């Protein structure tokens, strides 16, 4: 795997190192030793999949508050999405800043999201599927979110959302979010 630090401390873009031959391709998607060598989390308790029918679907920006705060490893297995994380860490020099990675099903690349970040994405193709690993179990009572369309975030989403949950449309702006 190829690890590339992102501009927000602790966040990492991860590409696979495919081994291709006449049969197709084989690649490592995860390795305890490689992750540990990079100082990344190696304990995961839940795996989820997000299946999105239409391009333009916007999900997020979500997080879980302590003690249920979580590290996420999000990978695109089909289609394509603009994946965005926002730094909500208390005392962070980059609080409120975001960074984006294009997750591509053809590359099967991933983003490693540390604790203290809100996460969301907009799909760029119909049928986009993202696979999540979570370091902490789902805790509905500790869920929070910020509005992905908040102008204060300055996120350049590819298009107006085609699909978006009512919950996400009603999320509060960054200024109403207590740091994590
Ligand atoms: C996250 C989660 C959700 N659920 C249930 C709760 C709802 O009944 C249903 C859909 O959940 P939600 O509307 O939160 O799904 P998304 O809007 O795609 O949110 C997810 O995608 C954004 C971008 C994220 O980063 C979060 O990890 C995750 O919240 O699955 C579970 O049963 N287990 C879980 O771990």
From TrEMBL:
It holds the Pfam family dTDP_sugar_isom. InterPro entries: RmlC-like, RmlC-like_jellyroll, RmlC_Cupin_sf. Its EC number is 5.1.3.13. It catalyses: dTDP-4-dehydro-6-deoxy-alpha-D-glucose = dTDP-4-dehydro-beta-L-rhamnose. Residues 157-180 are annotated as: Disordered. Residues 165-180 have a biased composition (Basic and acidic residues). Catalyzes the epimerization of the C3' and C5'positions of dTDP-6-deoxy-D-xylo-4-hexulose, forming dTDP-6-deoxy-L-lyxo-4-hexulose. This is dTDP-4-dehydrorhamnose 3,5-epimerase.
